């Protein structure tokens, strides 16, 4: 079967012929891949910044944002049946008995770092025609979401973050509608899906982004009742004055310079959530005294979050249904391109045109 693979040793990305997998145990299912989303992680892997093939393979099949249709199930599969649409989780547990996180099914909190990830770290990914997986890693999606369910995985970033945010803010001995001013950094798919999740959680949302041609992003942001501020024309100081007290920052740019500029504008009892992984660039100057002083005197929390447990996938499936009901055009506008698998290597090398590009492996 066809698969898109990266060969880190010889620095090549190729469409390869990979053996089709078969069900090996009664708890596994086999699924035909329909859609695979392309994101910054895939571009970094295919420019050889990271990405590790499985042991014994000289290539890694990429792709971690999936939508598939079940074709076969083992005798003990209970979660899905043939014909069901499924989105598969990405991270798999480390082998160590001492890792309480992985042993509890929470490999998103793995202590050892020896977890594996499909399409990223030591496990083949989903940019291929068929996959076989344990049914515990499959999440059934209603068929109405067929055209957009490839957005479930990137939405799990926001879902896990929102859950962590709720846990953190339980420290405040009141609840209410005050102090719900959120700032989203970045207008890529992660930022825009985060903005949608914050809106349905009752936040006022401003999206601050440097996106050269941002009409599409601006339209989506307005449609969901949020505000777009262009970083090209407004400095962080000007943006902060326009927003007022910032209670939550949801970072989705992966650029540390802007992020640390914005931390200085986080309000009292505020939470700054990092979700991006910056590429290694040169050192930058940061006002550490000011930041440390504000963090202490304002009870601030700086929180990192990596996705995601199965219940965040369930939450993403549910919320995607809510989004498409409230903002059908805005949600569909997130997917700006669909390409056949034969064009995947060109799509990957062309860089990030549009918002979310999808490899439509089969119809
Ligand atoms: Zn991704
Ligand atoms: Zn672990």
Our count of helices gives: 11
Strand content: 25-35%
Low-confidence stretches: none
Broad shape: globular
Oligomer class:
single chain
Number of strands: 19
Distance between the termini: 16 Å
Descriptive report:
The protein is an alpha/beta fold and 363 residues long. It is 28% helix and 27% strand. The chain has helices spanning 40-45, 100-103, 152-169, 189-200, 215-223, 236-243, 256-263, 288-297, 310-326, 328-332, 344-349, and strands spanning 2-7, 12-17, 28-38, 60-61, 65-73, 85-88, 91-92, 116-118, 122-123, 130-134, 138-141, 181-185, 204-209, 227-230, 246-251, 266-274, 301-304, 335-339, 356-360. Strands 3, 5, 6, 10, 11, 18 and 19 form a seven-stranded mixed sheet that branches. The protein is globular and about 55 Å long. Bound molecules: zinc ion (2 copies). Residues 93-94, 96, 99, 101-102, 107, 110-112, 115 line the site of one zinc ion.
In short:
The chain contains eleven helices and 19 strands. With 363 residues, it is an alpha/beta fold. The mean pLDDT is 95.
Any chance you could write out the topology, listing elements then pairs?
Elements: E1 2-7, E2 12-17, E3 28-38, H1 40-45, E4 60-61, E5 65-73, E6 85-88, E7 91-92, H2 100-103, E8 116-118, E9 122-123, E10 130-134, E11 138-141, H3 152-169, E12 181-185, H4 189-200, E13 204-209, H5 215-223, E14 227-230, H6 236-243, E15 246-251, H7 256-263, E16 266-274, H8 288-297, E17 301-304, H9 310-326, H10 328-332, E18 335-339, H11 344-349, E19 356-360
Helix pairs in contact: 3-4, 3-9
One zinc ion is lined by residues 39, 41, 64-65, 154.
